[in-house]
Amino acid sequence: MRRIAAAGGRNFRLAPSVRAGLEKLPVEIVERPVREADGSVPAEVSEADILVSGGAVIDEALLGQLSKVRFLVRPYVGYDDIDVDAVTRRGIVFANVPDAFIEEVANHTMALILGCNRKLLPTDAFMRRGAWSGGAPNREASRPIRRLSALTLGFIGFGNIARLVLERARPFGFRFIAADPFVSEEAASAFGATLLPIEQVLAESDIVSLHVFLNAETRHLINASRLALMKRDAYLVNTSRGPVVDEKALIDALQNGRIAGAGLDVFEVEPVAADNPLLKMPNVLLTSHIASYSEEGDVAHQARTLEIISHVVDGHLPERKVVINKDLYDSLAKQVQGAAV
């Protein structure tokens, strides 16, 4: 019987529907923190065959204490706290759940884009404080609003979510440009976007939307020097990961009018501290890391997580498209094919 350890931070548990589905399979389920107070890994976890890791750092020190794990699952999209190279060196196939709620993130990104452009936050505040009823001109808090068909929407990262955002934005008439070292000019062009260097995307865009994974190369990808490339009337929208942006540099750029504003769902430190200057800026539209959330999306995400794990419990390799360390996967797949001949 295979053992599945759901072991993350102290509050991590399998979603009820995932646990209920796994309980129908020939598995033993262990739910507990991945580390004890002294940093050691509990025996129930170290001897598991499958590790479902929620919000825990998976590094060389922890991996050295895992005696049997051959499949690691991060039941979300992000995995910046997992040392993928170390996981791969130990022959552990690593997968995330990248495709269950991309629709929600794309919709939320589009909401932030439209909300920033239409000045919804300052206009709402203008109404609520009675300025309009008090005689102020109705456009006082809303200028300038730009016609979207006159604007350029730039994407930093042009993967699945960015492409869904583009499809939602297409009817508004934007010009689309993108920067992504892993995407060809032909692939971007097929979606109607022109592939450019990141500096050019920042300089030419009226709205910049971020869609990159967080890793060593993308941490503070948007820093002071790159923010300085943006138009003074441009907006930055981030629904990817908070540390992709140097938040201190962003705050400085906003306070000094070097960019017009921002729409942010993610932050360097979460939850956001009560004294964070972003909370007091009328030109910053903020949401609480909820871009991936919808009731239907939660159901789909749990079903997808169960599907990925169950496939491995049944003795198969997971789908290649959800695997992060694909070179290891391909090597194992060849071995499996060779054994079947």
Which descriptors apply to this entry?
single chain, 341 residues, alpha/beta, seven-stranded parallel β-sheet, five-stranded parallel β-sheet, 13 helices, elongated
Quick summary of this structure?
With 341 residues, this protein is of the alpha/beta class. The chain has helices at 16-22, 43-46, 60-63, 84-89, 102-117, 120-128, 160-169, 185-190, 198-204, 224-227, 247-255, 295-313, 326-340; strands spanning 2-6, 27-31, 50-52, 71-74, 93-96, 152-156, 175-179, 194-195, 207-210, 235-238, 261-264, 284-286.
Write the layout of secondary structure elements.
Elements (H helix, E strand, L loop, with lengths): L1 E5 L9 H7 L4 E5 L11 H4 L3 E3 L7 H4 L7 E4 L9 H6 L3 E4 L5 H16 L2 H9 L23 E5 L3 H10 L5 E5 L5 H6 L3 E2 L2 H7 L2 E4 L13 H4 L7 E4 L8 H9 L5 E4 L19 E3 L8 H19 L12 H15 L1
Parallel strand pairs: 1-2, 1-3, 3-4, 4-5, 6-7, 6-9, 7-8, 9-10, 10-11, 11-12
Q: Indicate the low-confidence ranges by residue numbers.
A: none
**Termini gap:** 27 Å
**What is Rg?**
23 Å
Topology pattern, helix = H, strand = E: EHEHEHEHEHHEHEHEHEHEHEEHH
